[in-house]
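A favour, since you know our structure tokens better than I do. Go ahead and set the record down below.
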Amino acid sequence: MTDSAASPVFRLAYVPGATPAKWVRIWNERFPGTPLELTPVEAHDAQELLRTGGADAGLVRLPVDRDVFSAIPLYTETTVAVVPKDHLITAAEEISLEDLAEEVVLHPLDDVLGWDRLPGEEAFERPATTGDAVELVAANIGVLVVPQSLARFHHRRDLTYRTVVDAPQSEVALAWPQDATTDAVDDFIGVVRGRTANSTRGRRAAEPERKQEPARAARGAAQGGRQKPQSGGRGGRSTPAGGKGGAPRRGGGRPKRRG
């Protein structure tokens, strides 16, 4: 006879460039009875996946609809320009948007930076994806400005990148539907916020407190069972060894030998 009750699973979505590995490791150590299932999702599809219940929570790029989702910002990424290794701008460690004024800057349809105005010259058409834009950079069609994690995600040996100090930045957050804040979601919030196993949530933190009571009782019993040094005579003077509470013998305490 098989057990019909399936094991609970916590489903975590993550967008390209997000790196959940550290938190997944901590989760597996702390909650071995609840498997964590990773679901990769494109940045522009992440909110719909969470809204329809395709995942319990997700590592997404802000902004999200705050009327629907709760979100905890985790970190803000450095923005970089992806260029061929022999490009002129590689002579500097950092550049500004002004340095791209005469460059064709590719603007993929899945862009996550939310430009008010794209720097440089606009390409003839927008690539469908960031991956497609990287291929065009390799073909010397233009340059691409993206979060650093995406530059690493689409790494090619013939390309490199430089930090763009005044470009828009992308912020990664943990998000989940407001009306679906489950115990597992609450546990994962504790993981990403760096809480210890004993302080992940109030309902878990109470258990160690209860366990302390027997230990305190045992220590109290042990201390209560210890004998205090006896005191004798006036003024609390201690009893001399071998004596009965009286004054010590004179002359070294050794009896005289009778002839």
The CA atoms of residues 147 and 157 lie 18 Å apart.
